[in-house]
Design goal:
Structural class: mainly alpha
Number of strands: 8
Radius of gyration: 50 Å
Distance between the termini: 140 Å
Strand content: 5-15%
Helix content: over 70%
Largest sheet: 2 strands, antiparallel
Number of helices: 12
Amino acid sequence: MGVTGPTGPVLDRDEVDRALARLGAEHEAIETSLLALQDHAGRRLLEGAELTGVTKERWTSAEASITLLWTYFDAYTGALRRAREIRTRRRWSSREDLVELTELLRGTGVTVAGGGANTSAGAARLSEQFTLAQLVERMNDLYASSLDMVVAADAVWSALPARIDLLAAELQRTRQLAHSVGVRPGEHPAGDDLERITRTLTHLREQVISDPLAYWVPSQGSSAPGGGRPDTSTYDREARSLEDVRREIDAVLAVRQDAETRLVKLRDLLSRADRTLAEARNARGEVLAKIAASEVPAVSGPPTALQEQLATAAEYRRHAQWHRLSPLLESLEQDAEEELLRARESLTAVTAPLAVRAELRGRLDAYKAKVARHGLAEDPLLVERYDAARRMLWSAPCDLRVAEEAVLRYQRAAAELLGPRVPRQGEPADRRGEA
């Protein structure tokens, strides 16, 4: 590079050849990328779609960028072709050839008509001058932004519409199933949910088709084209809602399958509760007649409200109103279990005095048997106290408090005869046996 020109040192033949080889490789790579972008499925879809919103705005800009890309590429191709023609004029390029090649390869000799830049007054320039390096840099920027937009739109179209269609098909099957068991809009919450999901999915699909970039979330800090992911939050929410509805429909179907078994079980539970309450009422009369000075709780009447609900449930079953029968059976089963438990507690509370009397009778007879085993059955004191306690326990009405005291007196007398007397608190111990 012993000579110089307007752009600096003039390239020699070897430098020219190396520069042409590098530029040829860049040309081939750029051409391959542009052809791939031209054939990209996302670009073809964008060209044929009726776009709206942010996608329409960005595609208008991207289309202009792609057109400008080809304009730049044509200018780049023309400059490279001219440089090759100059280099092939002679085997050994003259100084004039080298100066011209240096200017072409390094100077701003590439003219692009309508390059898109604006003047300070805001009007678009008719042409722009570039170096080949500047032209490559400009093409790379336009290509990256265009590809990013195309890849993002294609990713959303590849991810969401097919999934929405599958969910819509599942939604249709669920609607038919719901209709078969009487779950309809305005009559059951699940029917209203199905209508809402249908409207949401229809609107979502229309929006995704016309404005895919509205459902694109770019990755933070990513510079790669198409860095990001489709926004599936709306789809995911409706998919979860449909799954909840499906579970509710399955529950209604289960009711249809085992409704008769559950109704029979409910009738049995309520019948047992009714019988238990009747037993409690009879027992209460017996307690009032046989036990004196005892508070006996009142016994409620039969569960008529539950019987009416049970009749309603049977009516729902006869008319195949499964969506109404399902919640009614669930509440009835819980209420019937609670009613039976209350009836049993009532019977236990009413018969408590009889249980106390029976326990006292058993305790009295047990001590009598123990005394008899030790040969003390004929002891006058024991006989007297046993007869007194027995009369109280086997007479009606029985005063439980007085009878319990009589049993305790008999127990104390028996204990004193059977072994050393147990001293009461504060009394000295009986040490007669120690002598």
